[in-house]
Design a protein that fits this description.
alpha+beta; three-stranded antiparallel beta sheet; 47% helix; 16 helices; 463 residues; five-stranded antiparallel beta sheet
């Protein structure tokens, strides 16, 4: 009730059907009398404190984000190697990267060449994002980063950024090692890029990321600790249901249905969102590979901008960055997400490749992935190719799930940004952090969903 109606002080009655024990919530109203509620004033006090903490965090992060000197001073205070090395505020250069909350901070080239660390990444917490199912969010990124670093899969985590509000410790962000290189998206635009080797390496990197699920320490520190509420349900399905409900509520409260530009999209979206269980069933009967349906530690946002390669386009190593959405999910989701992202980038002319090239690249990624996880051990070449074919088929079959999950997420972002209150009648995409058009982004993902769901009906069933 709190989530779907966006209220925090309310009362309700429950009726129970004596024949089948079905529970019905009735007579829900705001600000009722709280007679009989144990420790009501204590609960009210906690509510006020929670709102005060949230407001304080938002204001403090916004203030720091606008002040480069504050970021410089902060880095010197938190980075022992810089503090002990005598680095001064004026020695540092701040470069803004994403949504005015992620920064690169580095020492000027002519200052302290002997420093072991010359650059760091500063990332502040994003408050305006879709809801997640994570226990102890304060320590989540730090624990995941440390686990990935121990497995040789990510940058060194220097420190988490915490602050106390009303005596409560709260997570503000993190400082971590800067990963040198360029995104795979940028690398593919270079004529000298060794595409086949690079995508083989991407497949290997995704496999190693997935396999941290098998590490006992990682499982204890991250999976068992932070994802208790999932109760074994893959993250993609848990978020699918939560974000579906949130996006429906956001759209229903808006005037989107009457928009000349977005009205058609709104009507189709609402019909799909309210009947999505049937869509999920139709996807599942097409899945063939036991490896695609295995629960792994998913990156959850695999795309060409979140894969970093060497500046010389050396394909020997690809590092996956931006782990904020990672969690235990189905292996196939990361590949379906990659496909949906590539298709959008091609349609928007952000990358000059064809869908035939995408299919070849995806085969390279999948072959390397299956090889790394041991799916080829003891199998003939014919059997190996059969495993690749089944896994590839599942990747394409799962794209509708990846697309619709992004539609839900995009609509929630649109709501946060006020784009469902003041509806813009244009399709200009814009740039992230600079009037980005979340409605356009959502409608593009929905077009991808429709296209792939239509194709799904032509695919053979499993078994």
């Amino acid at each position: 009730i709190e989530l779907e109606w966006n209220i925090e002080l309310f009362g309700f009655d429950v009726l129970v059907d004596k024949n089948n024990q079905t529970h019905y919530v009735v007579d829900c109203n705001t600000l009722p009398g709280y007679k009989g509620v144990p420790n009501f004033l204590g609960h009210m006090n906690k509510l006020f404190i929670r709102h005060g903490i949230r407001k304080g965090l938002q204001e403090d992060i916004a203030r720091v984000n606008r002040d480069d000197d504050a970021i410089r001073s902060f880095c010197i205070e938190k980075m022992a190697v810089w503090k002990e090395g005598g680095v001064k505020v004026e020695d540092l250069i701040v470069r803004r990267l994403v949504d005015s909350r992620i920064f690169q901070v580095k020492c000027k080239k002519d200052v302290r060449r002997d420093l072991a660390v010359r650059k760091t990444l500063v990332a502040f917490y994003n408050w305006e994002k879709p809801r997640r199912i994570i226990h102890d969010e304060i320590n989540f990124i730090g624990n995941v980063s440390q686990g990935l670093f121990d497995a040789g899969l990510g940058p060194d985590q220097y420190c988490d950024i915490h602050a106390k509000y009303y005596g409560c410790d709260r997570y503000l962000g993190r400082l971590e090692q800067w990963v040198e290189g360029m995104t795979l998206l940028k690398a593919l635009k270079k004529p000298t890029t060794q595409r086949e080797k690079m995508f083989n390496c991407l497949g290997t990197s995704v496999a190693r990321f997935h396999k941290v699920m098998d590490n006992e320490k990682f499982k204890k520190d991250v999976i068992d600790h932070h994802f208790q509420k999932l109760e074994g349900v893959p993250l993609c399905y848990s978020l699918l249901e939560i974000w579906r409900r949130c996006s429906i509520i956001s759209v229903e409260k808006s005037d989107l249905r009457n928009s000349p530009m977005w009205g058609g999209f709104c009507s189709e979206f609402m019909e799909t969102a309210t009947t999505f269980e049937e869509v999920k069933k139709q996807v599942h009967v097409k899945l063939r590979s036991k490896y695609s349906m295995k629960t792994v530690y998913s990156h959850f946002d695999v795309n060409l901008s979140n894969a970093i390669v060497d500046n010389n386009c050396d394909p020997s190593k690809v590092t996956l960055i931006d782990i904020e959405w990672s969690g235990p999910s189905l292996a196939v989701y990361d590949f379906a997400k990659l496909i949906s992202s590539l298709e959008l980038q091609i349609e928007r002319k952000e990358i000059d490749i064809t869908m035939e090239t995408v299919k070849e690249m995806l085969r390279n990624v999948v072959e390397a992935y299956l090889c790394e996880i041991g799916a080829f051990e003891g199998k003939s070449e014919v059997q190996k190719q059969a495993e690749v074919a089944d896994f590839l088929s599942d990747c394409w079959a799962f794209v509708p799930i990846a697309c619709i999950l992004n539609v839900y997420s995009n609509l929630i972002h649109a709501s946060f940004d006020g784009q469902l209150t003041e509806i813009s009648e244009n399709r200009v995409l814009g740039k992230r952090g600079e009037n980005f058009n979340w409605l356009r982004h959502a409608s593009d993902h929905y077009a991808g969903f429709k296209k792939h769901f239509t194709k799904l009906n032509t695919m053979p069933r499993n078994g």
